[in-house]
Design goal:
Order of helices and strands: HHHEEHEHHEHEEEEEHEHEHEEH
Number of domains: 3
CATH superfamily of the largest domain: Periplasmic binding protein-like II
Shape: rod-shaped
Oligomer: single chain
CATH class of the largest domain: Alpha Beta
Strand content: 15-25%
CATH architecture of the largest domain: 3-Layer(aba) Sandwich
Structural class: alpha/beta
Radius of gyration: 32 Å
Largest sheet: 5 strands, mixed
Number of helices: 11
Low-confidence stretches: none
CATH topology of the largest domain: D-Maltodextrin-Binding Protein, domain 2
Distance between the termini: 66 Å
Strand order of the largest sheet: 4-3-5-13-6
Helix content: 40-55%
């Protein structure tokens, strides 16, 4: 038994004619008859009752045809998946990001990507940059967007963009009317700081320390979302990353440019040894384009 014999049997059953089967397969009628005869010898029973130029499938042929159809459906599925992989539209991808970018930007990129690739599947993970690097290194994430470069030998890092931090204040704050908030403006102000485990905390603190600006550090918040809640309650001001500023959902909170410039690096973390799906490359390209548009306005 070989695939060509099965194809001939499937074509005859589907068309009801040896002649039409030959046309479908682009071979002669005698060639189809020969393939059917070989297939019958292998099976050990007749597949068709022949009455002159007409043929009718036997009960055995009908039972066998059901199995052949299932096989061809499987082959068609394999062909469809191969085509989708070739066109970078099939696969499962785990994308991880630090909380501010995973909350809104990554879902936006994923949804735009999936709108043109219905066979794509995604898992989105939100975690701190230190854990992002570990997740990619241990192959628990395919790619990650981090604010720090990877420091493990299993990963490679690519700097994508440097974006400016923003200052957030309650709308009733005396400084809310200013177009730009300078670190000197925040002398003596109640300040909501990021937690000590946040790598951005040191960068922000260094700006104030270099200028000798004394703030009243009232609250440390583990995530930027918590920082916004505290500022919305008029309990202090804060300096946050641009992604969190864009995600501002509080009417009471105003966002202003902050000086001196504090930059947040955005790194793409990828595994070194593992060859990515073609779809991964297409997704990275779309993510880079999305980030570039964001960077132009921030």
């Amino acid at each position: 038994m070989n695939v060509r014999q099965i194809e001939a049997f499937q074509a005859v059953m589907a068309t009801g004619s040896v002649t039409r089967a030959g046309e479908r397969m682009n071979i002669s009628q005698p060639a189809v008859s020969q393939l059917i005869a070989q297939f019958e010898r292998h099976c050990g029973f007749a597949l068709f009752d022949r009455q002159g130029s007409k043929i009718a499938p036997t009960r055995e042929a009908e039972a066998l045809y059901a199995e052949v159809q299932r096989m061809f459906v499987g082959v068609a599925q394999i062909d469809r998946v191969a085509s989708a992989l070739r066109e970078q539209s099939f696969g499962a991808l785990c994308v991880a990001g630090f909380p501010a970018i995973a909350r809104r930007m990554i879902p936006e990129i994923v949804c735009a990507f999936m709108s043109r690739r219905p066979e794509a599947h995604f898992r989105i993970e939100s975690m701190r940059s230190r854990h992002l690097i570990d997740a990619v290194a241990t192959q628990n994430a395919d790619i990650a967007f981090s604010v720090i470069p990877g420091d493990r030998p299993e990963v490679e890092s690519r700097l994508l963009h440097r974006l400016r931090a923003s200052c957030i204040l309650h709308q009733s704050h005396p400084l809310a009317g200013k177009g730009v908030i300078h670190a000197n403006d925040l002398e003596g102000e109640a300040f909501v700081s990021l937690g000590p485990q946040d790598t951005s905390r040191n960068r922000i603190d260094r700006v104030f320390d270099n200028l000798g600006v004394k703030r009243r550090l009232r609250v440390e918040a583990g995530e930027s979302e918590t920082t916004f809640s505290i500022v919305a309650a008029n309990a202090g001001v804060a300096v946050v990353d641009p992604f969190s500023a864009t995600n501002n959902q509080y009417r009471e909170v105003v966002v202003r440019p902050f000086e001196p410039v504090v930059e947040f690096d955005i790194w793409l973390i990828r595994p070194k040894a593992r060859r990515p799906l073609n779809m991964t490359e297409a997704f990275v390209d779309q993510a880079l384009a999305h980030l570039a548009r964001f960077a132009e306005t921030h």
